[in-house]
Design a protein that fits this description.
RF3_GTP-bd, about 500 residues, GTPase activity, seven-stranded mixed sheet, Transl_B-barrel_sf, alpha+beta, Rossmann fold, Peptide chain release factor 3, eight-stranded antiparallel sheet, Alpha-Beta Plaits, about 25% helix, translation release factor activity, codon specific
């Protein structure tokens, strides 16, 4: 086994309240990364998973940013990337999913597939990310197992293969049957948790036995090839809160989930076995440590064995930087990484030299693709409460746009800067972080624009367009021209009138 074959880099995707935070915590507990499970129903500090550190997350009990948690179990190194679970999908979520090789999709047994789950699934499908499904909360009243399985199959156009089956649900829940081994994990104690009791020779209720026979005959058998191609999802039933099905999930990731996958680049596919060290920045996070104004770039290592102190060249900079203090993460806890293998995520402290989408490599001859900016769905003008803090605001907006929290546009005419986001919650994050981290108080006002498009074309075509549309032109933080549109009709109209220009809804970094 080569050194990177024992890496599993995965994310958990779900709708809010499906149980992702609880499952994350229990996976870390099973993996030995933490030793005490928090009380998810408690208030205050105990309510928050270890990966929720930002002030707004602590106040609202939700995950807004993506964190990385690394743990080892039975010779496998697991890199778990936590994705935001709130309703407002953000670019940070998308970029996190570009850095994983597989995902666990958590579904509430009472609610089935919800809009956010579907949105995140579609992002995974874009990159053929294989998915293991975990139907959670079976110890409570829920929908029929067949209904849930059929919904996954129909709504997501996936083959489904049951790997376990609940023995009753809700008030008559008596455990989880492993369809491969024939063992039943039983609830114990007054809280009816799984404490390790597994029965081999069990007589199942006739109704449950019939259900399982029907499930095994009616759905496709598990195929590793189909799963890794993103065409089939193995389905596990369980309860993260009561610890049912958690160990089976870790085992499934270890056994079935792919090791580090090749990554697309402008120079063709880059295999993890390539000797040269390459990687890409999928996230930048400032001020993780409130005691220090730090700035960490998260790099997914694609190929080669990284050694501490190595010189790597970022594609956006063009000159090499020495990586002296690379970090391995467990949420807020961190340690210096002496080495890292393909699939690993390392944090690189820097002062603005690294940006989302940058490729890092030894020879600067590779550029990874597929980490675009998206056209914002919400645009707002930024109004300072104290006009003397213009300089601090500019610095804050540049920092936060580098992180991917927002996009910032500087109009060619007019002094009020415009911020763009993909989801409403990102605006709350913006205001909260401006105040907490930059001591800048600001308000957001409606902008006269509905969306934005990046302009591409010859200098002559751009100049002609600018002469007639100065009021609708802005520059992004890279200085690239952007058309600020008042409506979708506006975009179509300008496209027809300016066939020599491309009006793009995405921008590759």
């Amino acid at each position: 086994m080569s050194s990177h074959d024992n890496r599993r880099t995965f994310a958990i995707i779900s709708h809010p309240d499906a149980g992702k935070t609880t499952l994350t915590e229990k996976l870390l507990l099973q993996g030995g990364a933490i030793h005490l499970a928090g009380q998810v129903k408690a208030r205050g500090a105990a309510r928050r998973a270890r990966s929720d550190w930002m002030k707004i997350e602590q106040q609202r009990g939700i995950s807004v940013t993506s964190s990385v948690m690394t743990f080892e179990r039975q010779g496998i190194t697991f890199n778990l990337l936590d994705t935001p679970g709130h309703e407002d999908f953000s670019e940070d979520t998308y970029r996190t999913l570009t850095a994983v090789d597989s995902a666990i999709m958590v579904i509430d047994a009472a609610k089935g597939i919800e809009p956010q789950t579907r949105k995140l699934f579609e992002v995974c499908r874009l990159r053929s990310v294989p998915i293991i499904t975990f139907i959670n909360k079976v110890d409570r009243e829920g929908r029929a197992c067949f209904d849930l399985m059929d919904e996954v199959a129909d709504m997501l156009a996936l083959d489904v293969c049951p790997m376990s089956w609940p023995v009753g649900m809700g008030g008559v829940f008596e455990g989880i049957y492993d369809l491969e081994t024939g063992k039943v994990s039983r609830p114990e104690g007054p809280s009816r948790e799984f404490l390790g009791k597994v029965d081999q020779d069990v007589t199942l209720p006739t109704e449950v036995a019939d259900e399982m026979e029907l499930a095994q005959g009616g759905y496709p058998e598990f195929s590793l090839e189909d799963y890794r191609a993103g065409n089939l999802t193995p389905v596990y039933f369980g309860s993260a809160l009561k610890n049912f099905g958690v160990a089976e999930l870790i085992d499934a990731i270890a056994r079935y989930a792919p090791p580090p996958r090749p990554q697309p680049s402008e120079q063709g596919t880059i295999e993890p076995s390539k000797d040269e060290v390459t990687g890409f920045i999928f996230k930048v996070q400032a001020n993780m440590d409130p005691m220090h104004r730090d700035r960490i770039a998260f790099m997914r290592l694609v190929s080669g064995t990284f050694k501490r102190g190595m010189k790597l060249t970022p594609s956006g900079l063009g000159k090499p930087i020495a990586v002296h203090s690379p970090i391995l993460f467990f949420a807020q806890d961190r340690e210096i990484a002496d080495s890292a293998e393909p699939g690993d995520i390392i944090g690189i402290p820097n002062h603005g030299t690294l940006r989302v989408g940058d490729t890092l490599s030894e020879r600067n001859d590779v550029r990874f693709t597929g980490l675009p900016n998206f056209a914002p769905e919400i645009l707002r003008r930024v109004q300072l409460k104290d006009p003397t803090k213009t300089k601090q605001l500019r610095k804050a907006l540049d920092d936060l746009s580098e992180e991917g929290v927002i996009q910032v546009f500087y109009p060619e005419i007019g002094s009020q800067w415009i911020v763009g986001v993909v989801g409403q919650l990102q605006l709350e994050v913006l205001i909260s972080r401006l105040e907490a981290e930059y001591k800048v108080e600001a308000m957001l006002e409606p902008a006269p624009f509905d969306t934005a498009r990046w302009l591409k074309g010859t200098d002559a075509a751009l100049k002609t367009f600018a002469d007639f549309n100065k009021m609708n032109l802005a520059r992004d933080r890279d200085g690239d021209p952007v058309f600020m549109a008042r409506s979708a009709w506006d975009v179509s109209y300008q496209q027809e009138r300016n066939p020599d220009l491309a009006f793009s809804a995405t921008k590759e970094r």
